[in-house]
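Here's my example:
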Amino acid sequence: MLRETLKNNFDLDVEYYAIIDFTGFEKMVDVLAPDGIEIDVEKNMSANIGVSLDSGLQKLNGKELLGYARFRKDAEADFGRVRRQQQIIKTMSNELLSTNGALKLPKLIGTVQPYVQTNFQSADLFNLVKDIALEPPQTVETLTIPVENSYTNVRYEGVGMALDIDFEENKEVIKSFLEGDSTGLVSGEDAVSEG
């Protein structure tokens, strides 16, 4: 359904996917960084995330990091949650692509495999992981959709709040982003350079 939605709304054809559940995410973090992933928690967080986090720089275990990734009970709402998730992707990518992280790949794959749904064939997934380990990317780029000033908040009777999105503008930004042309982006904040 997500692949169909992306195709219908943004003309984005996602061929391969991998979905990891909450338990798998927690286990992945704990195998990758047994002492925790260092995150600067910007505020106290506890609403609907299963943990209580205090503000400040600290090392979060898998359960705590998942709570941090899920938090959205502030003025930023879902956009803050996406920003935090991108922060986690950057931090975990750096950890995974380090020498120490690369050595943990076999154990990491074995640990999370039962919690991952994917349409990758095992051999293709193994080759992809091997290629990333042998030639780590210099950066990982992310993009938040909808881009700034391309949507309005609307309320639908019986449904609730939603975003009314300018799909054509967002399609163009996605196309520019995927082609590596960051000049087509609406705002520099929309693309986050990640290692």
